[in-house]
Amino acid sequence: MLKVGDRLPAATVYEYVEVEGNGCSIGPNPVDVSQAVAGKTIAIFGLPGAFTPTCSAQHLPGYVQLAEQFREAGVDEIWCVSVNDAFVMRAWGRDQGVAGKVRMMADGSAEFSRATGLTLDLTARGMGVRSARYSMLVQDGVVQALNVEAPGKFEVSGAQALLQQAQALRRR
User: Fold this and answer.
1) Among candidates 116, 119, 147, 114, which has minimal Cα distance to 132?
2) Which runs of consecutive H residues, i.e. helices, occur in 44-158?
3) Is 68 a domain residue?
4) What is the residue range of 85's domain?
5) Residue 159 lies in a domain
6) Which residues, in sequence order, are CB contacts of 132 under 8 Å at separation 6+?
7) 13: which strand partners?
8) Does 6 map to a domain?
């Protein structure tokens, strides 16, 4: 499993962009993780699924609400990663009002989740392999903070906890 000090693995996630621009089609567009994080500070949080209760009521909304404070703490982008397709992630993002605040990254085949070792096997519940619930702070591709939840918990990966870590990192 990924740990603090590790470089993010090479992987591709997908994003559905609401507005066409900069030569990108509307979607889904592949995002090379290694290229996208280069030279940036990124707050990444992973969760088991779009439109699920805890993810929709607590996890994603916290990052949307604190997006400006993350920027003030030196975070260039916030990514939400889930093992869903880009169309579902776009619909969920629209429903949650994430525009301009959180990038909704689809890991439909769990490529990124498997490469980081941050998976949760929900096969017995009919959901297959999913992303674990976590948050991390990444600078230029290197993990600076990582908060992984125990299965079924939401205690350490919320927006407020990662924001405090981003603020502490900025003070260093």
Assistant:
1) 119
2) 53-54, 60-65, 67-72, 86-96, 111-116
3) yes
4) 12-171
5) yes
6) 46, 48, 113, 118, 119, 120, 148, 149, 151
7) 31
8) no
The catalytic residue positions are 55
Instruction: Estimate to the nearest angstrom the gap between the alpha carbon of 99 and the chain centroid.
Output: 15
Amino acid identity, residue 64? V
13-52 residue pLDDT tens? 999 976 655 555 577 999 999 999 999 999 999 999 999 9
Structural domains counted in the chain: 1
For residue 142, is it within any domain?
A: yes
Tell me if the bond preceding 28 is cis, omega within 30° of 0: yes
- CATH number of the domain at 110, please: 3.40.30.10
User: Could you give the count of Cα atoms lying within 13 Å of 117 in the half-sphere of its Cβ?
Assistant: 8
Question: Tens of pLDDT along 118-159?
Answer: 999 888 887 888 999 999 999 999 999 999 999 889 999 999
The label of the residue with tokens 């707050």 reads: 43
